[in-house]
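Quick question, first post here. What does this chain look like in 3D?
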Amino acid sequence: MVRNLYLLLFFLAGLSTSSPAQLGPTHPTQTIRGHVLDADTEKPLAGAGLQLEDATQVYNLTSEADGSFRMSKLPVGRYQLTCHFVGYETQIVQEILLESGKEQIIEVRLTPGNETLAETVVKGNRPDNTVSSIQSISTEQILRFAATYFDPARLATSFPGVVNTNDQANNLSVRGNSPAGTIWRLEGVDIVNPNHLSNAGTIGDRPTSSGGGVNILSAQLLGATRFLSGAFSPEYGNTIGGILDMRFRTGNNEKHEFTAQAGLIGLDLAAEGPLSKTKGSSYLVNYRYSFTGLLGLMGVSFGGENIKFQDLSFNLTQPLKKGGKLTFFGMAGNSSNDFKAPEDPAVRLEDKDRYNIYFSSRMLATGLTYSRALTDRYSLKVSAVASANTNNRFQSPVETMPANIPAYVRDRSTNGRATVHAALTRRITDLRRLQTGLYVTRWYGSAGLWQSQTPFTPPPRQGRVQEGVLQAWLIQPYVNYQWTPNEAVMLNAGFHGNVFTLNSKSLSLEPRLSARYAVNAMNTLTFAYGLHSQTQQPMTYIAAKGLPLDAVNGISNTGLGFTKAHHAVAGYTRALTETSSLKAEVYYQYLFKVPVSVHAGSVTSALNLIDINEFAARPEQLANTGKGRNMGLELTYQRFLTKSYYLLLTGSVYDSKYQANDGVWRDTRFNGRHTLALTGGKEFTRLKYGSTRTWGVNAKITQLGGYLDRTIDELASKNAGQTVYKGNDFDVRLPDYFRADVRVYWRKSKPKYSRTLSLDLLNATGTKNAAYNYFDALQGKVVQQYQLGLVPVLNYRWEF
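> Answer (accepted):
Ran it through. Tokens below.
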């Protein structure tokens, strides 16, 4: 392992050498265009200065009266856009890839401030109240970085303190928190789990609340996407972990463009273009069908498993009079994972081979947004978003099972959210800004688990273990006041409210405070504090051990209140160059009112949950008396892709503890203690025979401290015929995790189209990383389950 690490470090070190392009006869060209807007009021900014720069030349232009800008017949390649306007902070948009098959449309939003100091430069195009613990994610990065599966959540594992709990899925533990603490947002509103195959990589093959095999929203439709890891500003609520905040990009409103992509992930077909050129309206749509599903239709199986998924996403944009804008968007997907036991008993090698298992899931999210500037000082944005998902699993044996084992198992879960969000922003002066908003959500959750020795019959359902339905309102008002007293200081102060009508204990008023201080042109200090709260998962409310089930819905733990957390972050950023920086952050998170078991001797805590049925497997009465604490130091060096190479080096040391009802501090399941991720790549470009040809080599090295597992009572497991733990204490540390990923691509741009052929080698060194231990009843012993080995992912992309 150490030898492999040194070899890959040496390889990445060689990326720092540049290779000039070889000039050819004809260079394909394309257009970069867009608008410059006031970030608060969306008022067009006329006369903004823009500099567009590639490796050899700088292009200067000025925005028009409607804020628009355009530069045509630009050579395809990599660009950086700098935008400045008197009285506003300068903004730099990095890593723009211009290809012959697709125009680049960029919306630049500027915030008031001093336009000359380097510390005020914002990298990205969505400035807001957040000053720390935030990373931007672009579609171009998702398509370039190694081992992303074209999924923003997997790219986020390159950031400090962000760990994937299993290679088969994108369940993220952020700063030692459970993946259940991470939420997804779409167009500024919380949604249910937007992932296919939400049971991927879990111990019990049950769905999770926030992850899955791959994101339903294709990366081809993603606009400005951000990942936040703590001490959130007031507009973010109902989470104690991390936030993946996704937005749709706007389709081309002048010309029709198409993308076809085929690979191991699936077959993608995307189209965009104008609905009305005179009105400036546009459409953007993508359909995807899994590659494994296509092979399944041809009779090909993967170890007895038939895995398939498909999804459809769209975004329609309609500009309105007086600067308003209306969007209608949606995403829908379904997936399934069917396992058929081998017919020959002689080839049944593990316990799973004795069962037929069928898992399916569906997810839908759709909504409308309306935004407009009311005056030069006021702007309004209103959103209505509904999302829902459902998961079903059925297990049946193919041989006679011992009497003490529940042979037939079925479970299902459903989550739904319907939210209206309104936000009003007032520019009091150029130095003072007030934002108020309100989320009103109809919250729905249901779950059930049934176990039986005989095949299931129609209702009444036999073998009920847990079953229940929850419905309530979730109401979240917020306010933020931003003040910039001078060119070096920015202050944010506000509140977020959280009211859950399920019970009287779910009420929280949460102060939020953040500040940025520019010491000089190169050095910046930041600080952020927030009190945060989060509802429990539906099964956590429902599950209870030893209590009679309610005659109507089987609910016993509905009296649980929010899990809460104080989170403080202090940071230091040094701008090394215009395209590179060094950042350090130290954080402390104190969690309280955590649901823990009330039973003597039990150390069950909600902070150790991954899949949503873990409490159902060992249901217990819970109370909000637990605690937790996460603390750590994170370091980040980032160099954006300029002069043909990029580098992102992140690392963290942290400690994650929890306290059950016995008052003893223990390691949480996710206390890996350290993370290290090195991501980099280099491009080699040549102009030849009327085309531009680019080779790209990318790699990622990940080294993590091992997670914790529970001790298995082997004798009790043999008697029970299934895994029996000695307790719920996570006291067994798994070995450290190491993985190296490589991505090589070849891109060719012709005058009318571009195409890209890529190959990813996931876990290129074939390292065996432990996932968890379990007792295998067929083998009669404790078995260690490993994560993914070497996986090649071939992909072909055509844009025209």
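Confidence is low (pLDDT under 50) at residues 1-24, 115-126, 545-554.
The longest strand covers residues 464-486.
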